[in-house]
Amino acid sequence: MKMTLPLKDTLRSMRQRAGMTQSALAERLSVSDRAVSRWENGESYPDITLLPQLAMLLHVSVDALLGMDSQRRQSAIEEALRETQTCMEQGRTEQAETMLRESLTAYPDEPELMVALARTLMLKHTEEAAREALALCRSAEGRPARLSTQYGCKQVAALALHRLGKSEQAAQLVSDEMPSFWASRELLYPRVAPPDKAQQQRRFNLLWLADHVGTTLRDMAKASEPPEAIDLLERAIRVYREVTGPHAGMYEERICRAYLTIAELHRETGDTAAARVAREHAEAAARAYAAHGGSYEAPWLAGLQDAPAPEQAVSVLLARIADHDRRFPDTTAQ
User: What is the mean pLDDT of the chain?
Assistant: First the structure.
C-alpha cells in the first residue's frame, strides 16, 4: 500500500506563517521554485535529506512538517474513545468519565471528546451533570467534526435542556436542527449499501424498531391507569420477544423493568397472584440478561452481535428487584 504523507497540507501554511515566499524557500534549500511548488501541490516530495533543513527554516519539527503530530493526536483520541466505549458497555461509567476528563485535559478543543463526556454525564440523571453536559455541547458547537458528532452534540444538548426544565428550548432545537426520521441513515443505508452490509443494517433496524416501539409503549403506560398500563407494558414485552426470538439479549433488561412495573400495578389493584407471577418473570429476565451469550439466535438476526450485559446494569436490576421485595413481600416468588 502506498503511503501518502500530508506534507502538501502543511507546507504551504507553514511557509506562509514563517513569512517566506516559494522563491525564498527554494533559494535557501538550493532547489528550484518549481520544486517547492510541486511539493505544495502534492505532485512530488522533497528529498529526505532536505527535511531537517526544511523544518528548521520553517521553525517546526519534522513530525509537524509531515503531519505526524496531527496523526498521533487523532490516533490518541480514537483510542481514548474506544476505551471509554468499552467501559460504558461494561457499566464502568465513572471510569469512563475519568478517562474522558483526562483526555480532554490533553486535547481541550476536541469536540468528539466533549460530546462523549457530555453523554456520560447525562447518565448521572442530575441537574448539575446536565448543566455541565450542556456547557460541553455549547463548547463543541461550531468546531470541525464528523456529522455524527455534530448531531450527537445536538441530541445531548436537547436532552440536557429537557432535564433542566427547558422543554420548549429542547423541542425547538430538535424541530429546527435534527434530521427527520425519513432522512436517517438507518433507512437510506440498506437501500444503497452492498447486500451483506445492507442486511446487517436491516437487522440493526429491527432491534432499533423494537426498542423504539417498546419505549413508546412504556412511556404511554406511565400516563395511564393500571389496567391500560398493564396492557401497554405487556404489549411492549411482546414486541421485544417477537423481534428477538426466545433470547431477547439486551432487551431482557427492558423486559425485567416492565415486569416489575406490572407487578407493582397488579399489587395496586389487589391482584396479588398476578403480581407474584409478574415478579417471577422479572427475576427470570434479570437472570437471562446477566447470562446471555452476546448474540441473537433468531434467524432474522443471525450473526448480529449483542453487547455483554453490563455488570452495573445487572446490579441495578437486582437492587430494584430486592427493593420491590421489601416493599411488596406478598409478591415475592416462593
Answer: 89
| DSSP codes of every residue in 293-328 | -SB--SGGGTT-B-PPPPHHHHHHHHHHHHHHHHH-
Q: Residue 310 corresponds to which cell in the numbers above?
A: 453490563
Strands (E), 183-266: none
CA dihedral 107, 157, 306, 282 (to 10 degrees): 130
Nearest to 54 by CA among 110, 114, 102, 7: 7
pLDDT-derived band at 5 (thresholds 50, 70, 90) equals: low
What pLDDT shows up at residue 2?
37
Task: Name the CA radius of gyration of the chain, rounded.
Answer: 27
Q: Is the dihedral of CA 271, 277, 279, 281 positive or negative?
A: negative
User: From residue 7, how far is each of 14, 34, 48, 195, 333 by CA, in Å?
Assistant: 10, 16, 12, 38, 69
Determine the Cα–Cα distance for residues 112 and 89; give it in Å rounded to an integer: 18
